[in-house]
Amino acid sequence: MEFKYVPTTCPYCGTGCGFNLVVKDKKVVGVQPWHRNPVNEGKLCPKGNYAHEFVNAPDRLTKPLIKKDGKFVEASWDEAYKLIAENFKKYQGEQSACLASARVSNEENYLMQKFARAVMKTPNIDHCARLCHASTVVGLAGAFGSGAMTQSIADIAESKCILIIGSNTFEQHPLIGRRVMQAKAKGAKIIYADPRLTATGKQADLYLPFYSGTDVALLNCFMQLILKNGWENKEFIAKRTKDFEKVKEIVMKDTYSPANVAKITGVPEKDIITAAEWFGKSGQSAILYSMGITQHTTGVDNVKSIANLQMLTGNLGRPGTGICALRGQNNVQGACDMGALANVYSGYQSVIVPEMKKKMEDAWGCQIAEGKVGLTVTKLINALADEPGKVKCVYIMGENPMLSDPDLHHVEKGMKNIEFLVVQDIFLTETAQFANVVLPAACYAEKDGTQTSTERRVQRWRKAQDPPGEAKPDWQIFCELAKYMGFEKQFPYKSPEDVFNEIAKVTPSYGGMSYARLEKPEALHWPCPTADHPGTPILHKEKFAHPDGLGIFTPIEWKPPAEVPDKEYPLILTTGRCIWQWHTGTMTRRSPDLEREEPTGWVEINPEDAKALGIKDKERVKAITRRGSIEIGARVTANIRKGEVFMPFHYVECAANILTNNALDPTAAIPEFKACAIRLEKIAGAK
Ligand code: SF4
After folding, report:
1. Would the pLDDT of 526 be above 60?
2. Which residues have a Cβ under 8 Å from the Cβ of 551 and sit 6 or more positions away?
């Protein structure tokens, strides 16, 4: 029996583990460890172990579908392309919008933003980074001039003190959790701040159970204690930063004394003091965070506070230090790098700088969309729902806003207002069901390409099998559709490598990369500006990326979430993932070995709150917010703090995002998924 082993990169979380796809009779049948891969050294979490199971699911899309009289009918590619081109030509300009994808390759994201700007002439291009780490991009770019994770994953093991805040690392990025455990084995102190005592928290040396949305208060208090005790890094502050005094003035206020912050956060005063001491004195402290920090109306404030703390203690640019903003999806970093964002071209080159627009026009050989910031995902949904006619035509690749976005009734209203919707995906998702045309795409196992992990490592995908039926790789669909639109010259690519070579030409941080250089398992970390540059695992070693090389402190006052508990809605709802499922479940729920473990959603509630409401473990309850209600099973557990409840957001049958709030951070436009007011009701006669 002949087996083939094809090395590739995991399509789930942003860790970027490598594995071999096992191929038999030209079909992917399993996953095997790839020991030489430096990210995971042959180890995988459950999702990686079963990353082959959805690939040949029986309901993969295999032919283009066109909606006729409210029903999808199969069509030829020619028929689908003609219909799309006819409509796209009608809606060129700002009446159209494109959503790219954190799941597909760099090459395909690059092509979608090029298609939006060069073919559709619209500035409205964005993707779901807006929903997870837009505040990281804005916050870290503001502080350091670069909006990405500052360290490598392996480097976490060198830390002497790790603060994990707003990240259930062991379940969401398990192979990064492994590096945390390696640091702990060498004596590092682990501090965990989160409203839930998760699998990650259970391994910590100190657990700070704070209320969702009180991050800035906690971080300001740490800074006050560090300054009062003289644990700040005076030399680093003096030589490498500016505006420190402005931050000092804020954090030294009595508002941020341990006694006050204990009241705001719900964390015992003595534990806040211990955490500040461990962190301030270690000399080599790292911070890991994820969406618990970013998904707030104060997401940018939270990120900038983290940057303030690391500049105050000089914990940047050295092994074992830094800010590890853990990216959720496999290629969310890459989709941002490729310019699938409303405000930048690839490499974060601003659309409002005329020279950048000219650079792209020269490279692409055509006029492109006006150099202005387009609609973000969140603003696009608002426009569709509340200003019908502003945007009439939407092209979505590999995204599922009908489950992933906040306030789903509002999203549905927007979807129904679209005059012409094209969805390109591997399954008929909740969003695809609203489409006029659905295009069947190839998945990660069926095409070559690259993706960029959370540590800025650009890694290869390698084709292991053919796509099912007539499905095609997204990059090929763009090339063919561009031809029907009259833009064949702009999309001349014969392979993903051709696309990558263009990316390297127009994107300075990828400028020295090529498929040949990425062939090795180590691949390359950006920035890698020239062909002889070794890549950059640690950022900001000598200076920050601002023109003057200095890091910028920003004074931040704590603000509560947009919606706080009251008499009618007395609890706080926070949402997240579980280890077995991923995002909107499109792939994991078609993976039998994963789906079996957590086949539906639940709401976690503290025993005291449950008792007061007469709710028993496993009982069905009604969860109600100002935006809607769902029925869901209760899990009564002391692992969540009193006053707060938690739901995973993967499950369409009890969709947590019917309940969440779409209030936005004012600069990053990220919604506040992580805190809103909620009421739970016992359902009469429920079991
Ligand atoms: Fe895949 Fe992330 Fe698990 Fe690694 S940690 S195997 S990248 S899901």
Report:
1. yes
2. 143, 144, 240, 241, 242, 307, 311, 316, 540, 544
| Ligand 1: nearest atom to the Cα of 176 | 5
Q: What is the pLDDT of residues 437-457, one digit of tens each?
A: 999 999 999 999 999 999 999
Whole-angstrom distance, CA of residue 370 vs CA of residue 392: 18
- The helix/strand/coil state of 346 is helix
- The verdict on 297 and 414 lying in the same domain is no
- Given a cut of 60, whether residue 687 has pLDDT beyond it is no
Residues 316 and 338 in one domain: no
Q: Examine the domain organization and report whether 320 and 233 are in the same domain.
A: yes
Tokens for 671, please give them. Answer: 């919604």
The verdict on 462 and 375 lying in the same domain is yes
- Domain that includes residue 464, residue range: 80-131+330-498
Q: What is the mean pLDDT of residues 633-662?
A: 95
Chosen domain end from 469, 498, 527 = 498
What integer pLDDT is reported at residue 129 of this predicted model?
82
Contact yes or no for 513/388 (Cβ under 8 A): no
Check if 673 has its Cβ closer than 6 Å to any atom of ligand 1: no
394 touches ligand 1 (CB under 6 Å): no
Q: Is residue 513 part of a domain?
A: no
Indicate if ligand 1 lies below 6 Å from the C-beta of 10. yes
Query: Peptide bond preceding 38: is omega within 30 degrees of 0, i.e. cis?
Result: no
In a domain, 601, yes or no: yes
Atom in ligand 1 nearest the alpha carbon of residue 49 = 6
Tokens coding 172: 């969401």
Pair 337, 307 in one domain: no
- Ligand 1 contact via 15 beta carbon (within 6 Å): yes
Distance 544 CA to ligand 1 centre (A): 30
Q: List the CATH number of the domain containing 228.
A: 3.40.228.10
Looking from the CA of residue 16, the nearest atom of ligand 1 is 7
Q: Note whether 223 and 307 are same-domain residues.
A: yes
- Atom 6, ligand 1: residue with shortest CA distance: 48
The pLDDT tens digits of the residues spanning 141-167 come to 999 998 899 999 999 999 999 999 999
Strands 628-636 and 620-625: antiparallel
| Residue ending a domain, choose from 325, 343, 368 | 325
Among candidate residues 474, 367, 336, 358, the one with its CA nearest the CA of residue 122? 367
Question: Based on the domain organization, do 284 and 381 belong to the same domain?
Answer: no
Residue 462 has pLDDT above 60, yes or no: yes
Domain annotation covers residue 557: no
153 touches ligand 1 (CB under 6 Å): no
Say yes or no: CB of residue 175 within 6 Å of ligand 1: yes
Ligand 1 atom with least separation from CA of 46: 3
Ligand 1 atom closest to Cα of residue 9: 7
Is any ligand 1 atom within 6 A of the Cβ of residue 594?
A: no
d(CA 632, CA 651): 10
Question: pLDDT value at position 328?
Answer: 86
d(CA 61, CA 189): 48
Contact between 476 and 550 under an 8 Å Cβ cutoff? The reply is no
**Percent of residues, the chain, with pLDDT higher than 90:** 92
- Ligand 1 centre to CA of 168 (Å) is 14
pTM of the model: 0.95
pLDDT band at 668 (very low <50, low <70, confident <90, very high): confident
Number of domains observed in the structure of the chain: 3
CA of 23 to the centre of ligand 1 (A): 20
Point out the ligand 1 atom lying closest to the alpha carbon of residue 51: 1
Look at residue 686 in the predicted model and tell me its pLDDT. 59
- Give yes or no for residue 45 CB within 6 A of ligand 1: yes
